[in-house]
TrEMBL record:
It comes from Mycobacterium attenuatum. It is an enzyme of class 4 (lyase). GO terms for molecular function: 2-succinyl-6-hydroxy-2,4-cyclohexadiene-1-carboxylate synthase activity. This is 2-succinyl-6-hydroxy-2, 4-cyclohexadiene-1-carboxylate synthase. Residues 7-241 form the AB hydrolase-1 domain. SUPFAM superfamilies: alpha/beta-Hydrolases.
Length: 264
């Protein structure tokens, strides 16, 4: 088996592999070979992607990630943010891997803990998409700058928030229908086989994350044999960006050392 320490960074909604920026550099500084896959059709400009991404399933995203992980010469650390946090878990249940970091994860089927505040935010950011006919077949366009700044990048600097917003692309409407209405999905795209993941799992939330309900990350950690949970103080949903990055990486460093992951 290779001594290469692989890490796969899985981006979230409206993002791409290029979104990782400083986080990728942080892992590389620690000696990792970093892979930042771009989810299907997210490499396309916004309007080009809108023509293709709408009906893509979460299962399609997971299949692509499993293929990548299986191609590596040693089991990687799987790290995902938001939607990527759910995808990291889905891929982990089907592949050899060293461990999983699910940061501000979208909820897997069966994990449901909304609050009135997060329901209002979700409705403001995503609600309009579900009011159109056949939302599962249509692209989910990025939210407005005002909503992105208020609800998602609420702790980031204005400069960084605008930089992140400028790179947003279309997301799959079907993927969001599979997450929001898992009880209607016969293919169970968001159902994670928790028992199949026997490696350490670290779930992370940001103290000021307004998008993901506060209990989702700890409830996710509790589903695993070796689940752990940490909160990043004074962070919004984007725990791998801005001032939060150093704190997040510190927790991941401690977790890796404690569990002796990827040791040569």
């Amino acid at each position: 088996m290779s001594d290469t320490k692989h890490v796969v960074l899985i981006h979230g909604t409206w993002g791409s592999g290029d979104s990782w920026g400083p986080a990728r550099a942080a892992f590389e500084e620690r000696g990792y070979t970093v892979h930042t896959p771009t989810l299907r059709y997210h490499e396309l400009p916004l309007h080009d992607g809108a023509m293709k991404v709408g009906p893509v399933s979460i299962r399609d995203y997971a299949d692509d990630l499993v293929e990548l992980v299986d191609s590596l010469d040693s089991p990687p650390l799987l790290v995902g943010l938001s939607l990527g946090g759910l995808l990291a878990q889905l891929a982990a249940a089907r592949t050899r891997h060293a461990g999983v970091v699910a940061a501000c994860p979208s909820p897997a089927a069966g994990i449901f803990a909304p609050t009135p505040a997060t329901m209002r935010v979700f409705g403001s950011v995503f609600g309009r998409h579900f009011l159109q006919l056949r939302p599962w077949a249509k692209p989910l366009y990025p939210t407005t700058w005002q909503r992105f700044r208020r609800w998602i990048a609420n702790v980031q600097t204005e400069e960084l928030a605008r930089e992140l917003f400028a790179d947003l692309v279309c997301e799959s409407g079907r993927a969001y229908c599979e997450m929001v209405f898992p009880f209607l999905d016969r293919r169970k795209a968001t159902t994670v086989n928790f028992a199949a993941v026997t490696t350490p799992v670290l779930a992370i939330r940001g103290e000021f994350d307004l998008v993901v309900p506060p209990r989702i990350a700890p409830m996710t950690a509790a589903r695993y044999q070796q689940g752990g949970f940490v909160e990043i103080p004074r962070s919004d949903h984007l725990v791998f960006f801005g001032d939060a990055l150093t704190l997040t990486m510190g927790h991941i460093d401690d977790w890796i050392a404690r569990n002796r992951l990827l040791a040569a």
